[in-house]
Amino acid sequence: MKTSNTLMNNPMYLRRRRTNFVMLGLTGVSVIIGLVWLVWILWTLLSKGLPALNLDLFTQNQPTMGETDGGLKNAIVGSLMMVFTATAIATPVGILAGTYLAEYGRNNRFTRMVRFVNDILLSAPSITIGMFAFILFYFGLKMGANSNSGWSGAIALSIVMLPVVVRTTDDMLKLVPNSLREAAVALGCPYWKMIFMIGYRSAKTGILTGLLLGVARIFGETAPLIVTAVGNNFYSTDMTQRMASLPKVILDFALSPDDNWQKLAWGGAMLITFFVLLLNISTRYIANRNR
After folding, report:
1. Distance CA 70, CA 74 (A)
2. What 3-state class would DSSP assign to 191?
3. H helices, E strands: number in the chain
4. Mean pLDDT value across residues 213-217
5. 141-196, pLDDT tens digit by residue?
């Protein structure tokens, strides 16, 4: 008992308790502040976005200013087409590049340079990537007026998604035990076949998770599409022409004084939130399925 009282009265022990109490209080307040903003944003989105969700949102094109009805069909279709095209471009390129970094390049100078550039692309402003895609189509491919198109928007989105796929593939393949590689090669398996039969099978969950995260990132991107796809007030599936997209329409409608446009903007924001939430839930499920 005497030892316990001596410890409780120790100045160092008392100072540590006060420091612990203060730091716990500060971290608790920080969590509360973060949750307040998150709940506020979600409540605002749900309260204004849910009333805008109806059948017209998916079956009618965006209205002109002053109309009381309309939907976002053209923007939804445009976003899906560009995201699908970007995913189809970024997926094979990203997986093959990540495979080279993890399996063939290892730690040589070129590989380290590629990883460094890939990390820069991960944090690069998306508007810069959009400008690059526009310049590529306008000056590089001499597309002229057709530089603003669904294809240029898809290329910009694929560049945004590419470093995510490369980094994920690289990291997941490096987690595959070397003993599995050595056993396959020792049995006479060609190295390329070992990658397909052993590496990809072992890392498929992580690679698929990276793909879903990449799709979730580009689905809500607005900046690259401002200078590439630009937008279209009408329904169009022609990727060589300007194409509407949900993020761009939400931006335009949210800045408008028209009440119907603002309502549709909240509905579009709700759709993107649901889609990204679904992808994140799918990612968590896939990541935890084989644990």
Report:
1. 11
2. helix
3. 13, 0
4. 87
5. 777 777 888 899 999 999 999 999 999 999 999 888 888 888 888 888 888 888 88
Q: With respect to CATH, is domain 58-289 assigned 1.10.3720.10?
A: yes
In this predicted structure, what is the pLDDT of residue 4? 58
- 11-31 pLDDT, tens digit per residue, is 777 788 888 889 999 999 999
| CA atoms in the 13 A half-sphere facing the CB of 81 | 23
Exposure string of 60-75, with b = 16+ CB inside 10 Å and e = fewer, is: bbbbeeeeeebbbbbb
The CB density around residue 155, as the number of other CB atoms within 10 Å, is: 25
List Cβ neighbours of 60 (8 Å cut-off, separation of 6 or more). 69, 70, 71, 73
What H or E segment, with its residue span, contains residue 273?
helix 259-289
User: Which two structure tokens, joined as six digits, stand for 178?
Assistant: 């070397």
Backbone angles phi, psi at 258, to 5 degrees: -70, 125
**Which three-class secondary structure state does DSSP give residue 12?**
helix
Domain range list for the chain = 2-52, 58-289
Q: Are 115 and 273 contacting, i.e. CB atoms less than 8 angstroms apart?
A: no
